[in-house]
């Protein structure tokens, strides 16, 4: 597997049904968390990890996602005229010169694995790439920079093995995620261990562990061949998890990288509210919790 890693696929074609009615006419990736849309948070995360070639897998009706990374001549000219330099720079900083955005279309909603495969022609088989699921906001521990996507890229480069970011979830939530099997072991925060297998949304009594896939992956380009041959799995959808399990069965090394910090599933209302509340307090935008509301 090549050590060069610049590309990241971000699937944004989902309908966002869990965020309705907010997402009826706004793409769910444009829903704000604090002062910026979700998609901007994840593109910033990608850039911080050195992933500057972003491939959006999108669909009709979601052009606002791409537009967010275009320059906006009228606003920029107006801010310049008024001397609002800080705001102007913040706006231009959304798409720094190194950011290259390409988009491809997913014409049918056949699942995450199918969405990733829609970008197969842009990924040479000898090239590794990352995947970020934009519903999930990852906030690594502030003083612990060794546990984020950037650290996972470093782990990929030193180990030359595919990486999947995981966190521990309560047993009652294992049936909502991909769950990895590290042969009974659990990596420490910021470390990785080989995965023996993984399963999408297992029943509680069949989960091989409580380590869940949170939506950050570094995969070899050869996964595209596996995806091409993957049939419908959990929920009747073509699952990325199944193609990765196949890769492991064929002898490829895939590691579970343990993050530490918090994740927020902003693809549904409670997770999105929680992200705004917790991060709003952290950023000093909201008053501290006085114990009269639990988040
Ligand atoms: C997807 C993946 C799953 C992963 C989850 C993280 O599921 O298939 O393995 O654990 O994202 O959010 P989805 O949430 O799209 O059903």
TrEMBL record:
InterPro entries: GalU_uridylyltTrfase_bac/arc (IPR005771), NTP_transferase_dom (IPR005835), Nucleotide-diphossugar_trans (IPR029044)
Top EC class, one word: transferase
Domain Nucleotidyl transferase: 8-277
Coiled coil: none
Role according to the record: May play a role in stationary phase survival.
Similarity comment: family membership: Belongs to the UDPGP type 2 family.
Protein name: UTP--glucose-1-phosphate uridylyltransferase
Organism encoding this protein: Oceanospirillum linum
């Amino acid at each position: 597997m090549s050590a060069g890693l610049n590309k990241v696929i971000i699937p944004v074609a989902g309908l966002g049904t869990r965020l309705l009615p907010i997402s009826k006419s706004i793409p769910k990736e444009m829903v704000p968390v604090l002062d910026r849309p979700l998609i901007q948070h994840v593109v910033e995360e990608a850039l911080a990890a050195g992933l500057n070639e972003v491939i959006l897998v999108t669909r009709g009706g979601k052009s606002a996602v791409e537009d967010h990374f275009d320059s906006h001549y009228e606003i920029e000219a107006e801010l310049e005229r008024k001397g609002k330099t800080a705001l102007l720079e913040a706006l231009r900083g959304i798409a720094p010169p190194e950011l290259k955005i390409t988009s491809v279309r997913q014409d049918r909603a056949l699942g995450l694995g199918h969405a990733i495969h829609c970008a197969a022609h842009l990924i040479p088989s000898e090239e590794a790439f990352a995947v970020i699921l934009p519903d999930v906001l990852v906030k690594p521990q502030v003083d612990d920079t060794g546990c984020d996507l950037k650290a996972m890229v470093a782990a990929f480069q030193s180990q030359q093995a595919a990486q999947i970011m995981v966190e521990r979830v309560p047993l009652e939530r294992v049936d909502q995620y991909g769950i990895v099997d590290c042969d009974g072991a659990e990596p420490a925060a910021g470390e990785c261990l080989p995965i023996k297998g993984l399963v999408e949304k297992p029943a509680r009594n069949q989960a091989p562990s409580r380590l869940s896939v949170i939506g950050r992956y570094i995969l070899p380009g050869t996964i595209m061949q596996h995806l091409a041959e993957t049939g419908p799995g959990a929920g009747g959808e073509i699952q990325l998890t199944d193609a990765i399990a196949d890769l492991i069965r064929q002898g490829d090394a895939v590691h579970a990288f343990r993050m530490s910090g918090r994740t927020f599933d902003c693809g549904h209302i409670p997770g999105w509210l929680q992200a705004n509340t917790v991060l709003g307090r952290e950023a000093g935008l909201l008053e501290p919790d006085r114990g009269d509301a639990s988040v």
